[in-house]
Write a structure and sequence with these properties.
- By secondary structure, the protein is an alpha+beta fold.
- It has 10 helices and 11 strands.
- The strands form 3 sheets. A 4-stranded mixed beta sheet has the order 1-10-11-2, with no helix packed on it. A 4-stranded antiparallel beta sheet has the order 6-7-8-9. A 3-stranded antiparallel beta sheet has the order 3-4-5, with no helix packed on it.
- A hairpin with a 6-residue loop joins strand 3 and strand 4.
- Helix 2 runs antiparallel to helix 5, helix 2 packs parallel to helix 10 and helix 6 packs antiparallel against helix 7.
- The longest helix is centred in the middle third of the chain and has 39 residues.
- The protein binds FE2/S2 (inorganic) cluster.
- The site of FE2/S2 (inorganic) cluster (FES) has 10 residues, from loops.
Length: 321
C-alpha cells in the first residue's frame, strides 16, 4: 500500500473519502429513519433547530421561508447528505459530490455552528475544508470516476491499466449502492409509520411536559423587578436580563399563575439557549444540547441542566428573589 501511495499520492484520499462518505450517508439516513427530526414538537427537530439558530445566524433572515416548509426542506437535506455521501464513497461524480458537501457544510457553519466558542470547535468548518482535496483533485484511485475514465481511454485506444482492480470497484460499488438504497427504503418506511403515529397523537403534543413542579407561587416577596406578569404567556417563556448577573434568563409560565425562572446560559460552553415550546423545551444553537421546560438536560453534550433562578409574583410583577 505504501508503494502505491509513493507512486500515486492520491491513494491517501481513500481515507478521507471513506470517512466523509460514511458520515454523510449516515447523517442523511438517520434523519429519515429517526423519529425526532421531522417531529416539530421534539427538541431535536429541524423546526426547533431553525428556531434556535435564527436569531444568532448571519443568514437567519433567509430561514423564515425554510421554517414554513420544514418537512420538505428536511427531506431535501437528508437526500442531499445521502447523495453526497454515496458519491464520495463510490467516487462517482466526486467533484460534484464534494461541491455539495462543501455547500451543506457551509450552510451548517453559518447556522448551527455559528455560535461555537471558540469558533474552531464547531465541526462544520472542518468538514467544509475536508472536502476541498476532493473538490480540487477528484476522487483518485479505486473510484467509479477512475473506472469510467479508464473505459473512455480503452474505447479511444489509449490503452488500459489496472482493469481488474477497477472492475472489482464497479462490482463493489454497485453492491454498496444497492445496500444504501435498501437502507434508505427501510428508513422511509419507518418515517411513514412514525408520521402516522404523530398524526394519531394530534394536538396532545402541546400538553406534554406541562407537569413541571412550581418553584414559585403568588406572593408579596420583595426583590428586583423583572417584568410584568402579563408579559409571560401561559405555556410560554419570556427572555429577560437577570438583574444580578446581567446574563439572559427565562421566566416561564407553564401553568396559569405559576412562574419559574431558568438561566439561559448553556452549561456546556456558555451559549444562550432558545426556548422552543413548553413541550419541546430549550435548544442550544451551538452544539444542539436540549433541555426540557424544567431545565433538565434531555440531550448532550451538556452534562447538567439549566440553573434554576428563583422568581415570584409580587403584585402584577415578576421579581427575582
Ligand atoms: S454551548 Fe455547547 S451545547 Fe450549548
Amino acid at each position: 500500500m505504501l508503494d502505491r501511495v509513493r507512486q500515486d499520492p492520491r491513494w491517501i484520499l481513500l481515507v478521507l473519502r471513506g470517512y466523509l462518505g460514511f458520515t454523510f450517508v449516515y447523517a442523511g439516513l438517520s434523519k429519515v429513519g429517526g423519529r425526532s427530526f421531522f417531529d416539530s414538537s421534539a427538541p431535536g427537530s429541524l423546526q426547533a433547530t431553525l428556531l434556535a439558530v435564527r436569531a444568532h445566524s448571519p443568514i437567519g433572515g433567509l430561514l423564515g421561508p425554510v421554517e414554513h416548509h420544514s418537512f420538505a426542506f428536511g427531506l431535501l437535506i437528508a437526500a442531499g447528505e445521502t447523495a453526497v455521501g454515496t458519491g464520495t464513497l463510490l467516487g462517482l461524480w466526486a467533484r460534484v459530490a464534494a461541491l455539495g458537501g462543501t455547500l451543506i457544510s457551509l450552510s451548517l457553519f453559518l447556522t448551527v455552528s455559528w455560535d461555537a466558542t471558540p469558533w474552531y470547535t464547531g465541526a462544520d468548518i472542518v468538514y467544509l475544508f475536508a472536502f476541498t482535496p476532493l473538490l480540487l483533485g477528484g476522487a483518485g484511485p479505486l473510484s467509479l470516476d477512475a473506472w469510467l475514465a479508464l473505459r473512455r481511454d480503452r474505447e479511444s485506444g489509449a490503452g488500459a491499466r489496472d482493469a481488474d482492480v477497477n472492475r472489482r470497484v464497479l462490482v463493489t460499488g454497485l453492491a454498496a449502492l444497492g445496500a444504501l438504497i435498501a437502507l434508505g427504503a427501510a428508513g422511509l418506511a419507518r418515517l411513514g409509520s412514525s408520521a402516522a403515529r404523530t398524526a394519531t397523537a394530534g394536538g396532545r403534543a402541546s400538553d406534554r411536559g406541562a407537569a413541571v413542579p412550581a418553584t414559585s407561587s403568588p406572593s408579596s416577596t420583595s426583590g428586583a423587578g423583572l417584568l410584568a406578569a402579563s408579559a409571560v404567556p401561559v405555556g410560554g417563556a419570556t427572555e429577560v436580563a437577570d438583574p444580578q448577573s446581567g446574563d439572559p434568563m427565562y421566566v416561564l409560565q407553564l401553568r396559569p399563575g405559576v412562574f419559574t425562572g431558568l438561566d439561559a446560559i448553556c452549561p456546556h460552553q456558555g451559549c444562550t439557549v432558545s426556548f422552543v415550546s413548553a413541550a419541546a423545551g430549550f435548544v442550544c444553537p451551538c452544539h444542539l444540547s436540549t433541555f426540557d421546560s424544567s431545565g433538565a438536560v434531555t440531550q448532550g453534550p451538556a452534562a447538567v441542566g439549566l440553573a434554576t433562578i428563583p422568581v415570584s409574583l409580587s403584585g402584577n410583577e415578576i421579581v427575582r428573589t
